[in-house]
Design a protein that fits this description.
This protein has 231 residues and is α/β, with parallel strands linked by helices. 47% of the residues lie in helices and 16% in strands.
Length: 231
């Protein structure tokens, strides 16, 4: 299969790239700022790395023009923001939506022609448990991830008749760079609040994404990967 992963150079996206290449799929992944990590991952896995800001529709269209087709699309690209709603700037708000929501829209729109031609495909988006329930001091981030969930469900209904499945993975506290600004005491508190007694890893989420991408009679679902933190 031909697999395209946005935000594939680090964290969850990089583990997704590793999973698909390990089983023999032809993988292209997009990255934006982290060229060294992207090139290292491409060398490690044999995947194709393409520099692309998913917030830029023209850049996304150009990136997809270099791919023979996309059978599986995984939308991992995302950024976060912590702070009071009264303190976030309009530019920060717009950038969050440009990457986290517009980026999914741009990638889906670019991947669809080949899927529609084949009358088959699988799309997996990545939201967050805060998109399900909201988080104090992460209102903007929560709003973008809630939008991803709504978009996923709508696309599943729209694209189901074309045998294109659209599902979403909703991670909890995952030990990636998005948590780098949290001190160890906060991470310990989050771990203690998780029924499974630990915070998640990129491996946990990547495993769920690959399995969800493969399920032939599952669409429109939000798979929570959060150790029971949100039920």
């Amino acid at each position: 299969m031909f697999v395209t992963v946005t935000g594939g150079s680090r964290g969850i996206g990089a583990e997704v790239v590793r999973r698909f290449t390990a089983r023999g799929d032809a993988v292209t992944f997009f990255y934006h700022r982290h060229e060294a990590e992207a090139l290292a991952l491409a060398k490690e896995t044999g995947a194709k790395a393409v520099c692309c800001d998913v917030a830029d529709s023209a850049a996304v269209a150009a990136a997809f023009s270099s791919i023979p087709r996309t059978d599986v699309l995984v939308c991992c690209a995302g950024i976060s923001h912590m702070g009071l709603i009264s303190e976030i700037s309009e530019a920060e708000w717009r950038r969050l939506f440009a990457v986290n929501v517009d980026g999914v829209f741009h990638a889906v729109r670019a991947a669809l022609p080949s899927m529609l031609h084949e009358q088959c495909g699988s799309i997996v988006t990545v939201s967050s448990m805060w998109g399900e329930v909201g988080a104090s001091c992460e209102a903007a981030y929560s709003a973008t991830k809630g939008a991803v969930i709504a978009l996923t469900k709508a696309l599943a209904k729209e694209l189901g008749p074309s045998n294109i499945r659209v599902n979403c993975v909703s991670p909890g506290v995952i030990l990636t760079d998005m948590c780098k600004n949290l001190d160890s005491a906060v991470l310990d508190e989050l771990k203690d609040a998780t029924p499974l007694g630990r915070n998640g890893t990129a491996d946990d989420v990547a495993d769920a994404i690959v399995k969800l991408a493969d399920l032939p009679f599952v669409t429109g679902q939000i798979l929570s990967v959060n150790g029971g933190f949100v039920m």
